[in-house]
Amino acid sequence: MISLRDPSARKMLYLLLALVLITLVLMFSHVAKMVIIAMLLAYILDPLVVRMEAHGISRAAAAGIILAVITAIMIAGLFLTVPLIKEQMMQMSSGESSAKTDVALAQLQEVVRAKLGWLGYGDIDLKAKLHDFKAASSKYIVDFIVSDFAGLVITLVTIPFLMFFFIKDALTFKKQLIRIVPNRFFEFSLDLIHKMDQQLGNYLRGQFIDAVTIGTLATVGLGALSVPYFFIIGPLAGLANLIPYVGPFAGGIPAMIAALMEHGDLSAAGNVALLFLGIKLVDDFLVQPMAMSSSVHLHPALIMVACLAAANLFGLIGMLLAVPITGFIKVVITESAQTLKQYRFNRDITLKA
Amino acid sequence: MKGLFVRRKASEKTGLKESDLCKVLKTMPIFQDLTRRELAAVIRILHEREYQPDEIIFRENEPGLGMYIIESGRVAILSESGKLQLTELGDGVFFGEVSLLDAAPRSATAMAKTKSRIFGLFQPDLYGLIERNPSLGIKIVLGLSRLVCERLRQTNQRAFAFNEALQQMRHTEP
Question: Does the ipTM surpass 0.85?
Fold first, then answer.
Protein backbone atom coordinates (compact mmCIF):
# COMPACT_ATOMS: atom_id res chain seq x y z
CA MET A 1 0.00 0.00 0.00
CA ILE A 2 1.49 3.35 -1.04
CA SER A 3 1.37 5.97 1.70
CA LEU A 4 1.89 9.71 1.26
CA ARG A 5 4.13 9.59 4.33
CA ASP A 6 6.66 7.75 2.20
CA PRO A 7 8.98 10.47 0.82
CA SER A 8 9.40 8.57 -2.45
CA ALA A 9 5.63 8.37 -2.97
CA ARG A 10 5.33 12.08 -2.12
CA LYS A 11 8.00 13.01 -4.62
CA MET A 12 6.35 10.84 -7.26
CA LEU A 13 3.09 12.72 -6.57
CA TYR A 14 4.88 16.07 -7.01
CA LEU A 15 6.27 14.78 -10.28
CA LEU A 16 2.80 13.78 -11.44
CA LEU A 17 1.43 17.19 -10.43
CA ALA A 18 4.23 18.86 -12.38
CA LEU A 19 3.35 16.74 -15.42
CA VAL A 20 -0.33 17.72 -15.12
CA LEU A 21 0.73 21.36 -14.89
CA ILE A 22 2.92 21.01 -17.97
CA THR A 23 0.02 19.38 -19.83
CA LEU A 24 -2.26 22.28 -18.87
CA VAL A 25 0.30 24.79 -20.11
CA LEU A 26 0.66 22.82 -23.32
CA MET A 27 -3.08 23.06 -23.81
CA PHE A 28 -2.64 26.79 -24.31
CA SER A 29 -1.07 26.14 -27.66
CA HIS A 30 0.21 29.66 -28.38
CA VAL A 31 2.10 29.82 -25.08
CA ALA A 32 3.30 26.28 -25.69
CA LYS A 33 4.57 27.21 -29.13
CA MET A 34 6.55 30.15 -27.72
CA VAL A 35 7.94 28.05 -24.86
CA ILE A 36 8.92 25.20 -27.20
CA ILE A 37 10.61 27.53 -29.70
CA ALA A 38 12.46 29.36 -26.89
CA MET A 39 13.57 26.05 -25.37
CA LEU A 40 14.73 24.73 -28.73
CA LEU A 41 16.69 27.93 -29.40
CA ALA A 42 18.26 27.81 -25.93
CA TYR A 43 19.16 24.19 -26.48
CA ILE A 44 20.63 24.82 -29.92
CA LEU A 45 22.69 27.77 -28.69
CA ASP A 46 23.99 26.05 -25.56
CA PRO A 47 27.40 25.05 -27.03
CA LEU A 48 27.98 28.71 -27.91
CA VAL A 49 27.22 29.70 -24.29
CA VAL A 50 29.56 26.97 -23.00
CA ARG A 51 32.31 28.27 -25.30
CA MET A 52 31.78 31.79 -23.93
CA GLU A 53 31.92 30.47 -20.38
CA ALA A 54 35.21 28.73 -21.19
CA HIS A 55 36.55 32.21 -22.01
CA GLY A 56 35.65 33.45 -18.53
CA ILE A 57 32.25 35.03 -19.32
CA SER A 58 29.54 34.18 -16.78
CA ARG A 59 26.52 32.19 -18.04
CA ALA A 60 24.15 35.10 -17.39
CA ALA A 61 26.39 37.51 -19.30
CA ALA A 62 26.71 34.99 -22.17
CA ALA A 63 22.90 34.65 -22.28
CA GLY A 64 22.66 38.47 -22.25
CA ILE A 65 25.11 38.77 -25.15
CA ILE A 66 23.11 36.23 -27.19
CA LEU A 67 19.86 38.07 -26.40
CA ALA A 68 21.42 41.36 -27.51
CA VAL A 69 22.76 39.81 -30.75
CA ILE A 70 19.40 38.19 -31.59
CA THR A 71 17.56 41.44 -30.86
CA ALA A 72 20.00 43.36 -33.08
CA ILE A 73 19.62 40.78 -35.88
CA MET A 74 15.81 40.96 -35.59
CA ILE A 75 15.76 44.77 -35.72
CA ALA A 76 18.25 44.86 -38.61
CA GLY A 77 16.31 42.09 -40.35
CA LEU A 78 13.04 44.01 -39.99
CA PHE A 79 14.57 47.22 -41.34
CA LEU A 80 16.17 45.41 -44.25
CA THR A 81 13.45 42.97 -45.19
CA VAL A 82 10.20 44.81 -44.44
CA PRO A 83 10.54 47.25 -47.40
CA LEU A 84 11.54 44.36 -49.67
CA ILE A 85 8.72 42.08 -48.48
CA LYS A 86 6.28 45.02 -48.68
CA GLU A 87 7.32 45.68 -52.26
CA GLN A 88 6.97 42.02 -53.16
CA MET A 89 3.60 41.80 -51.40
CA MET A 90 2.37 44.90 -53.25
CA GLN A 91 3.52 43.37 -56.51
CA MET A 92 1.74 40.16 -55.58
CA SER A 93 -1.47 41.86 -54.48
CA SER A 94 -1.63 44.14 -57.52
CA GLY A 95 -2.23 41.01 -59.55
CA GLU A 96 -0.50 42.59 -62.51
CA SER A 97 1.56 40.25 -64.60
CA SER A 98 4.39 40.95 -66.99
CA ALA A 99 4.01 40.90 -70.78
CA LYS A 100 6.09 37.69 -70.86
CA THR A 101 3.72 36.06 -68.40
CA ASP A 102 0.75 37.09 -70.53
CA VAL A 103 2.39 35.48 -73.57
CA ALA A 104 3.17 32.31 -71.61
CA LEU A 105 -0.36 32.20 -70.23
CA ALA A 106 -1.86 32.71 -73.68
CA GLN A 107 0.27 29.84 -75.04
CA LEU A 108 -0.69 27.64 -72.11
CA GLN A 109 -4.37 28.53 -72.61
CA GLU A 110 -4.16 27.51 -76.26
CA VAL A 111 -2.67 24.16 -75.24
CA VAL A 112 -5.44 23.65 -72.65
CA ARG A 113 -8.14 24.57 -75.20
CA ALA A 114 -6.71 22.23 -77.81
CA LYS A 115 -5.87 19.26 -75.63
CA LEU A 116 -8.24 19.48 -72.67
CA GLY A 117 -11.27 21.01 -74.33
CA TRP A 118 -13.09 17.72 -74.07
CA LEU A 119 -12.77 17.90 -70.28
CA GLY A 120 -14.78 21.13 -70.19
CA TYR A 121 -11.75 23.44 -69.76
CA GLY A 122 -12.01 24.89 -73.25
CA ASP A 123 -13.16 28.35 -72.20
CA ILE A 124 -10.98 28.68 -69.10
CA ASP A 125 -9.50 32.18 -68.54
CA LEU A 126 -6.06 31.42 -67.04
CA LYS A 127 -5.12 35.10 -66.74
CA ALA A 128 -8.21 35.91 -64.68
CA LYS A 129 -7.75 32.76 -62.58
CA LEU A 130 -4.12 33.69 -61.86
CA HIS A 131 -5.10 37.27 -61.00
CA ASP A 132 -7.79 36.03 -58.58
CA PHE A 133 -5.42 33.53 -56.98
CA LYS A 134 -2.63 36.09 -56.46
CA ALA A 135 -5.04 38.69 -55.09
CA ALA A 136 -6.71 36.18 -52.75
CA SER A 137 -3.44 34.71 -51.44
CA SER A 138 -1.83 38.10 -50.86
CA LYS A 139 -5.02 39.33 -49.13
CA TYR A 140 -4.85 36.27 -46.87
CA ILE A 141 -1.19 36.96 -45.98
CA VAL A 142 -1.79 40.71 -45.42
CA ASP A 143 -4.91 40.00 -43.32
CA PHE A 144 -2.96 37.48 -41.28
CA ILE A 145 -0.12 39.94 -40.62
CA VAL A 146 -2.46 42.90 -39.85
CA SER A 147 -4.96 40.99 -37.71
CA ASP A 148 -2.29 39.23 -35.69
CA PHE A 149 0.27 42.04 -35.70
CA ALA A 150 0.10 42.54 -31.92
CA GLY A 151 0.44 38.80 -31.39
CA LEU A 152 3.37 38.72 -33.79
CA VAL A 153 5.16 41.52 -31.91
CA ILE A 154 4.49 39.84 -28.54
CA THR A 155 5.80 36.55 -29.90
CA LEU A 156 8.93 38.18 -31.36
CA VAL A 157 9.66 39.91 -28.04
CA THR A 158 8.71 37.02 -25.75
CA ILE A 159 10.63 34.20 -27.45
CA PRO A 160 14.10 35.81 -27.10
CA PHE A 161 13.37 36.73 -23.46
CA LEU A 162 12.19 33.21 -22.63
CA MET A 163 15.26 31.88 -24.42
CA PHE A 164 17.47 34.15 -22.30
CA PHE A 165 16.10 32.65 -19.08
CA PHE A 166 16.24 29.10 -20.42
CA ILE A 167 19.94 29.64 -21.25
CA LYS A 168 20.81 31.46 -18.03
CA ASP A 169 19.08 29.02 -15.68
CA ALA A 170 19.50 25.80 -17.67
CA LEU A 171 21.66 24.18 -14.98
CA THR A 172 19.29 25.24 -12.19
CA PHE A 173 16.24 23.95 -14.09
CA LYS A 174 17.98 20.62 -14.65
CA LYS A 175 19.01 20.40 -11.00
CA GLN A 176 15.51 21.28 -9.77
CA LEU A 177 14.00 18.68 -12.08
CA ILE A 178 16.37 16.04 -10.73
CA ARG A 179 15.67 17.17 -7.16
CA ILE A 180 12.03 16.08 -7.31
CA VAL A 181 12.88 12.61 -8.62
CA PRO A 182 12.62 9.94 -5.89
CA ASN A 183 15.93 8.46 -4.67
CA ARG A 184 15.07 5.12 -6.21
CA PHE A 185 15.03 6.65 -9.71
CA PHE A 186 17.68 9.34 -9.11
CA GLU A 187 20.74 7.89 -10.88
CA PHE A 188 18.54 6.40 -13.59
CA SER A 189 16.99 9.82 -14.31
CA LEU A 190 20.36 11.54 -14.29
CA ASP A 191 21.76 8.94 -16.68
CA LEU A 192 18.69 9.20 -18.92
CA ILE A 193 18.74 13.01 -19.03
CA HIS A 194 22.44 12.97 -19.91
CA LYS A 195 22.00 10.45 -22.74
CA MET A 196 18.97 12.31 -24.12
CA ASP A 197 20.85 15.59 -23.85
CA GLN A 198 23.69 14.24 -26.00
CA GLN A 199 21.44 12.67 -28.66
CA LEU A 200 18.95 15.52 -28.84
CA GLY A 201 21.58 18.24 -28.79
CA ASN A 202 23.30 16.80 -31.85
CA TYR A 203 20.00 16.15 -33.61
CA LEU A 204 18.42 19.56 -33.02
CA ARG A 205 21.60 21.51 -33.75
CA GLY A 206 22.00 19.47 -36.95
CA GLN A 207 18.43 20.31 -38.00
CA PHE A 208 19.01 24.00 -37.24
CA ILE A 209 22.30 24.22 -39.19
CA ASP A 210 20.69 22.32 -42.08
CA ALA A 211 17.65 24.64 -42.23
CA VAL A 212 19.78 27.81 -42.04
CA THR A 213 22.17 26.56 -44.75
CA ILE A 214 19.40 25.51 -47.12
CA GLY A 215 17.45 28.73 -46.47
CA THR A 216 20.52 30.86 -47.20
CA LEU A 217 21.46 28.89 -50.33
CA ALA A 218 17.89 29.04 -51.65
CA THR A 219 17.54 32.79 -50.97
CA VAL A 220 20.88 33.63 -52.61
CA GLY A 221 20.27 31.26 -55.54
CA LEU A 222 16.73 32.49 -56.22
CA GLY A 223 17.93 36.11 -55.91
CA ALA A 224 20.66 35.41 -58.46
CA LEU A 225 18.08 33.87 -60.83
CA SER A 226 15.90 37.00 -60.40
CA VAL A 227 12.98 34.94 -59.12
CA PRO A 228 10.33 37.20 -57.58
CA TYR A 229 9.49 36.81 -53.87
CA PHE A 230 12.94 35.19 -53.37
CA PHE A 231 13.15 36.82 -49.94
CA ILE A 232 9.98 34.98 -48.89
CA ILE A 233 10.43 31.68 -50.75
CA GLY A 234 14.12 31.20 -49.79
CA PRO A 235 13.71 31.24 -45.99
CA LEU A 236 10.49 29.21 -46.35
CA ALA A 237 12.45 26.59 -48.30
CA GLY A 238 14.94 26.45 -45.42
CA LEU A 239 12.16 26.00 -42.86
CA ALA A 240 10.32 23.50 -45.06
CA ASN A 241 13.53 21.48 -45.20
CA LEU A 242 12.76 20.49 -41.58
CA ILE A 243 10.06 18.28 -43.04
CA PRO A 244 11.79 15.36 -44.79
CA TYR A 245 10.62 14.21 -48.27
CA VAL A 246 8.05 17.03 -48.64
CA GLY A 247 10.41 19.90 -47.70
CA PRO A 248 12.44 20.31 -50.92
CA PHE A 249 9.22 20.30 -53.02
CA ALA A 250 7.51 22.79 -50.68
CA GLY A 251 10.29 25.26 -51.45
CA GLY A 252 10.98 24.32 -55.05
CA ILE A 253 7.50 24.26 -56.57
CA PRO A 254 6.40 27.80 -55.52
CA ALA A 255 9.78 29.11 -56.73
CA MET A 256 9.32 27.39 -60.11
CA ILE A 257 5.80 28.82 -60.49
CA ALA A 258 7.05 32.30 -59.53
CA ALA A 259 9.91 32.04 -62.06
CA LEU A 260 7.54 30.82 -64.79
CA MET A 261 5.13 33.67 -64.12
CA GLU A 262 7.86 36.29 -64.06
CA HIS A 263 9.86 35.22 -67.08
CA GLY A 264 7.15 33.46 -69.07
CA ASP A 265 9.67 30.88 -70.04
CA LEU A 266 9.92 27.20 -69.16
CA SER A 267 13.72 27.46 -69.06
CA ALA A 268 13.40 29.87 -66.08
CA ALA A 269 11.44 27.21 -64.17
CA GLY A 270 14.03 24.66 -65.31
CA ASN A 271 16.84 26.82 -63.87
CA VAL A 272 15.01 26.96 -60.54
CA ALA A 273 14.55 23.17 -60.61
CA LEU A 274 18.29 22.79 -61.29
CA LEU A 275 19.04 25.17 -58.42
CA PHE A 276 16.93 23.12 -55.99
CA LEU A 277 18.48 19.91 -57.30
CA GLY A 278 21.93 21.40 -56.64
CA ILE A 279 20.85 22.51 -53.16
CA LYS A 280 19.49 19.02 -52.47
CA LEU A 281 22.82 17.46 -53.55
CA VAL A 282 24.78 19.90 -51.36
CA ASP A 283 22.40 19.09 -48.51
CA ASP A 284 22.65 15.31 -48.93
CA PHE A 285 26.39 15.03 -49.53
CA LEU A 286 27.86 17.98 -47.64
CA VAL A 287 25.59 19.58 -45.03
CA GLN A 288 23.79 16.53 -43.63
CA PRO A 289 26.87 14.30 -43.20
CA MET A 290 28.63 17.13 -41.34
CA ALA A 291 25.75 18.65 -39.38
CA MET A 292 23.58 15.62 -38.72
CA SER A 293 26.07 12.85 -38.03
CA SER A 294 23.86 11.40 -35.30
CA SER A 295 20.51 11.77 -36.95
CA VAL A 296 17.41 10.22 -35.41
CA HIS A 297 15.87 7.87 -37.94
CA LEU A 298 12.13 8.39 -38.28
CA HIS A 299 9.86 6.24 -40.44
CA PRO A 300 8.29 8.21 -43.35
CA ALA A 301 4.79 7.16 -42.26
CA LEU A 302 5.48 8.40 -38.74
CA ILE A 303 6.69 11.73 -40.11
CA MET A 304 3.55 12.08 -42.22
CA VAL A 305 1.20 11.29 -39.33
CA ALA A 306 3.15 13.60 -36.96
CA CYS A 307 3.10 16.48 -39.47
CA LEU A 308 -0.63 16.12 -40.12
CA ALA A 309 -1.49 15.86 -36.41
CA ALA A 310 0.73 18.83 -35.50
CA ALA A 311 -0.67 20.92 -38.38
CA ASN A 312 -4.16 20.13 -37.13
CA LEU A 313 -3.33 21.10 -33.55
CA PHE A 314 -0.80 23.92 -33.90
CA GLY A 315 -1.02 25.08 -37.53
CA LEU A 316 1.96 25.79 -39.79
CA ILE A 317 4.47 26.26 -36.94
CA GLY A 318 3.25 22.98 -35.45
CA MET A 319 3.96 21.26 -38.75
CA LEU A 320 7.50 22.66 -38.81
CA LEU A 321 8.10 21.63 -35.20
CA ALA A 322 6.53 18.20 -35.72
CA VAL A 323 9.70 16.47 -36.91
CA PRO A 324 12.07 17.74 -34.18
CA ILE A 325 9.43 16.98 -31.53
CA THR A 326 8.79 13.49 -32.94
CA GLY A 327 12.57 12.97 -32.94
CA PHE A 328 12.63 14.15 -29.30
CA ILE A 329 9.86 11.70 -28.32
CA LYS A 330 11.61 8.86 -30.14
CA VAL A 331 14.90 9.59 -28.34
CA VAL A 332 13.07 9.73 -24.98
CA ILE A 333 11.36 6.38 -25.57
CA THR A 334 14.39 4.50 -26.98
CA GLU A 335 16.85 5.88 -24.42
CA SER A 336 14.40 5.22 -21.55
CA ALA A 337 13.95 1.63 -22.70
CA GLN A 338 17.69 1.07 -23.06
CA THR A 339 18.64 2.74 -19.77
CA LEU A 340 15.82 0.99 -17.91
CA LYS A 341 17.38 -2.40 -18.71
CA GLN A 342 20.55 -1.40 -16.82
CA TYR A 343 18.80 -0.58 -13.54
CA ARG A 344 16.94 -2.59 -10.91
CA PHE A 345 14.39 -0.77 -8.85
CA ASN A 346 13.44 -3.46 -6.36
CA ARG A 347 14.66 -2.93 -2.82
CA ASP A 348 15.31 -6.49 -1.66
CA ILE A 349 18.86 -7.25 -0.67
CA THR A 350 19.81 -10.56 0.93
CA LEU A 351 22.94 -10.71 3.03
CA LYS A 352 24.56 -13.58 4.89
CA ALA A 353 23.59 -13.58 8.54
CA MET B 1 16.59 42.26 -11.44
CA LYS B 2 18.59 41.44 -8.32
CA GLY B 3 20.31 38.15 -8.78
CA LEU B 4 20.10 38.23 -12.53
CA PHE B 5 23.78 38.83 -13.07
CA VAL B 6 24.91 37.93 -9.55
CA ARG B 7 25.78 34.34 -8.86
CA ARG B 8 23.74 33.00 -5.97
CA LYS B 9 25.67 31.54 -3.10
CA ALA B 10 25.77 27.78 -3.13
CA SER B 11 24.25 27.77 0.35
CA GLU B 12 21.04 29.30 -1.05
CA LYS B 13 20.69 26.32 -3.36
CA THR B 14 21.78 23.48 -1.11
CA GLY B 15 20.20 24.70 2.11
CA LEU B 16 23.55 24.10 3.81
CA LYS B 17 26.13 26.65 4.87
CA GLU B 18 28.58 27.02 2.01
CA SER B 19 31.48 27.21 4.45
CA ASP B 20 30.50 23.84 6.01
CA LEU B 21 30.30 22.21 2.62
CA CYS B 22 33.62 23.80 1.63
CA LYS B 23 35.19 22.33 4.75
CA VAL B 24 33.90 18.87 3.86
CA LEU B 25 35.17 19.18 0.29
CA LYS B 26 38.55 20.57 1.39
CA THR B 27 39.23 17.37 3.35
CA MET B 28 38.93 15.36 0.15
CA PRO B 29 42.15 14.83 -1.84
CA ILE B 30 40.29 15.58 -5.09
CA PHE B 31 39.40 19.11 -4.04
CA GLN B 32 42.18 20.06 -1.62
CA ASP B 33 43.96 22.37 -4.13
CA LEU B 34 40.83 24.29 -5.09
CA THR B 35 40.27 27.92 -4.10
CA ARG B 36 37.10 28.98 -2.33
CA ARG B 37 35.68 30.36 -5.57
CA GLU B 38 36.45 27.11 -7.37
CA LEU B 39 34.87 25.10 -4.57
CA ALA B 40 31.74 27.23 -4.96
CA ALA B 41 31.65 26.23 -8.66
CA VAL B 42 31.89 22.57 -7.64
CA ILE B 43 29.14 23.00 -5.03
CA ARG B 44 26.87 24.36 -7.77
CA ILE B 45 27.00 21.04 -9.61
CA LEU B 46 26.51 18.88 -6.53
CA HIS B 47 23.17 17.13 -6.04
CA GLU B 48 21.89 17.07 -2.49
CA ARG B 49 19.94 13.93 -1.51
CA GLU B 50 18.44 12.67 1.71
CA TYR B 51 18.16 8.93 2.33
CA GLN B 52 16.12 7.06 4.93
CA PRO B 53 17.54 4.03 6.79
CA ASP B 54 17.83 0.96 4.50
CA GLU B 55 17.28 3.06 1.40
CA ILE B 56 19.45 2.05 -1.57
CA ILE B 57 21.81 4.70 -2.95
CA PHE B 58 23.06 2.62 -5.86
CA ARG B 59 23.24 -1.06 -6.69
CA GLU B 60 25.97 -3.43 -7.76
CA ASN B 61 26.28 -3.88 -11.56
CA GLU B 62 24.24 -0.77 -12.33
CA PRO B 63 26.02 1.89 -14.46
CA GLY B 64 28.39 3.96 -12.33
CA LEU B 65 27.61 7.63 -12.77
CA GLY B 66 29.60 9.36 -10.07
CA MET B 67 30.67 9.74 -6.49
CA TYR B 68 28.87 10.49 -3.23
CA ILE B 69 30.04 12.53 -0.25
CA ILE B 70 28.41 11.76 3.10
CA GLU B 71 27.59 15.03 4.83
CA SER B 72 25.88 13.28 7.75
CA GLY B 73 24.74 9.73 8.45
CA ARG B 74 26.12 6.24 7.88
CA VAL B 75 26.29 4.24 4.65
CA ALA B 76 26.92 0.52 4.26
CA ILE B 77 28.84 -0.79 1.26
CA LEU B 78 27.54 -4.24 0.42
CA SER B 79 28.53 -7.02 -1.92
CA GLU B 80 25.30 -8.48 -3.27
CA SER B 81 27.20 -11.18 -5.18
CA GLY B 82 29.06 -12.18 -1.99
CA LYS B 83 25.98 -11.43 0.13
CA LEU B 84 28.00 -9.56 2.78
CA GLN B 85 28.72 -6.09 4.11
CA LEU B 86 32.14 -4.85 3.03
CA THR B 87 32.39 -1.70 5.11
CA GLU B 88 30.45 1.10 6.77
CA LEU B 89 31.19 4.76 6.08
CA GLY B 90 30.41 7.90 8.10
CA ASP B 91 30.43 11.72 7.99
CA GLY B 92 32.78 13.41 5.52
CA VAL B 93 33.68 10.17 3.75
CA PHE B 94 33.25 9.79 0.00
CA PHE B 95 32.68 6.71 -2.15
CA GLY B 96 32.17 5.74 -5.79
CA GLU B 97 34.79 8.26 -7.00
CA VAL B 98 36.21 5.92 -9.70
CA SER B 99 32.88 6.23 -11.52
CA LEU B 100 33.79 9.85 -12.26
CA LEU B 101 36.51 8.58 -14.58
CA ASP B 102 34.99 5.54 -16.25
CA ALA B 103 31.54 4.17 -16.97
CA ALA B 104 32.16 0.69 -15.56
CA PRO B 105 29.29 -0.87 -13.58
CA ARG B 106 29.24 -0.37 -9.80
CA SER B 107 31.32 -3.01 -8.01
CA ALA B 108 29.18 -2.87 -4.85
CA THR B 109 25.85 -1.70 -3.48
CA ALA B 110 25.55 1.38 -1.24
CA MET B 111 22.74 1.52 1.31
CA ALA B 112 21.97 4.15 3.95
CA LYS B 113 22.16 2.65 7.46
CA THR B 114 20.79 5.75 9.18
CA LYS B 115 19.03 8.86 7.94
CA SER B 116 21.75 10.34 5.74
CA ARG B 117 22.35 13.58 3.88
CA ILE B 118 24.56 12.91 0.91
CA PHE B 119 25.97 15.01 -1.92
CA GLY B 120 26.46 13.47 -5.34
CA LEU B 121 28.95 14.59 -7.97
CA PHE B 122 28.28 12.99 -11.34
CA GLN B 123 30.21 12.43 -14.53
CA PRO B 124 27.90 14.43 -16.87
CA ASP B 125 28.02 17.46 -14.55
CA LEU B 126 31.79 17.15 -14.12
CA TYR B 127 32.28 16.96 -17.90
CA GLY B 128 30.05 20.02 -18.27
CA LEU B 129 32.17 21.87 -15.69
CA ILE B 130 35.37 20.85 -17.54
CA GLU B 131 33.92 22.30 -20.77
CA ARG B 132 32.80 25.52 -19.09
CA ASN B 133 35.85 26.00 -16.89
CA PRO B 134 38.79 23.96 -18.27
CA SER B 135 41.38 25.17 -15.74
CA LEU B 136 39.17 24.11 -12.82
CA GLY B 137 38.38 20.88 -14.63
CA ILE B 138 42.08 20.07 -14.97
CA LYS B 139 42.60 20.67 -11.24
CA ILE B 140 39.77 18.28 -10.36
CA VAL B 141 40.91 15.60 -12.83
CA LEU B 142 44.49 15.93 -11.45
CA GLY B 143 43.09 15.49 -7.94
CA LEU B 144 41.21 12.40 -9.09
CA SER B 145 44.33 11.03 -10.80
CA ARG B 146 46.34 11.53 -7.60
CA LEU B 147 43.67 9.65 -5.68
CA VAL B 148 43.63 6.77 -8.17
CA CYS B 149 47.48 6.66 -8.10
CA GLU B 150 47.42 6.51 -4.31
CA ARG B 151 44.88 3.67 -4.42
CA LEU B 152 47.00 1.85 -7.01
CA ARG B 153 50.10 2.27 -4.85
CA GLN B 154 48.23 0.88 -1.84
CA THR B 155 46.92 -2.02 -3.91
CA ASN B 156 50.43 -2.74 -5.19
CA GLN B 157 51.80 -2.70 -1.64
CA ARG B 158 49.04 -5.08 -0.51
CA ALA B 159 49.66 -7.36 -3.50
CA PHE B 160 53.38 -7.29 -2.76
CA ALA B 161 52.80 -8.12 0.93
CA PHE B 162 50.36 -10.84 -0.04
CA ASN B 163 52.86 -12.29 -2.50
CA GLU B 164 55.61 -12.26 0.15
CA ALA B 165 53.34 -13.99 2.65
CA LEU B 166 52.50 -16.59 0.03
CA GLN B 167 56.18 -17.20 -0.73
CA GLN B 168 56.92 -17.57 2.99
CA MET B 169 54.06 -20.04 3.37
CA ARG B 170 55.45 -22.08 0.47
CA HIS B 171 58.93 -22.14 2.04
CA THR B 172 57.62 -23.16 5.44
CA GLU B 173 55.44 -25.93 4.02
CA PRO B 174 56.90 -29.39 4.73
Answer: no
